[in-house]
């Protein structure tokens, strides 16, 4: 029951300080610029997971962004990270993933933390955890949720796991996501 509810839920991005403005970039671009990116594309990430069943899809998720034809470089560190990947239980909320970050004048002012909500994701296979974390790291990088209506167009920033993974099997950044990153960086 929890899993089916999770699959209906949304993966979220929350800004702790500044309100998050979602600004469509233009009709030719489906990606969303949330006006909160890093000042550099040379980024450090940290594994803050509590178990290997999350560490593995976390490493796969950051590697997926690192491998894109963009300026993004993600190097693993043990402290001083720009992006931390973590598993925690936020309870029966509406989200299966969430990214916390603070924003000012268009930029992240602190490191971002991208979370799985184990209330739901303990029931996900590793590849589904990866799909969700690639999505959440997209929020950390500055991309917003997208709601595409066809698997032809569904990006990794598709907001719901039911469409992004279950229907459309997205586990790495898609052309629209890469266009978004190349726009931002
Ligand atoms: Zn999202």
For the record, the count of structural domains works out to 1
Give the termini separation.
41 Å
Q: List all distinct small molecules, including ions and cofactors, that are bound in this structure.
A: zinc ion
Helix content: 25-40%
Unreliable parts = 1-10, 15-28
**CATH-defined superfamily:** Collagenase (Catalytic Domain)
| Computed Rg | 15 Å
The first-level CATH class name: Alpha Beta
Multimerization state: single chain
Description:
This protein has one domain: Collagenase (Catalytic Domain), CATH 3.40.390. Helices cover 32% and strands 26% of the residues. It contains 6 helices and 10 strands, in the order H-E-E-E-E-H-E-E-E-E-E-E-H-H-H-H. A 6-stranded mixed sheet has the order 1-7-10-6-4-5. A two-stranded antiparallel sheet has the order 2-3. A hairpin with a 2-residue loop joins strand 2 and strand 3. Bound molecules: zinc ion.
Care to give the gist of this entry?
With 185 residues, this protein is α/β, with parallel strands linked by helices. Helices cover 32% and strands 26% of the residues. It has helices spanning 2-8, 52-66, 118-121, 126-141, 161-167, 175-184, and strands spanning 10-15, 23-26, 29-33, 42-47, 73-76, 83-88, 95-101, 103-104, 107-108, 112-117.
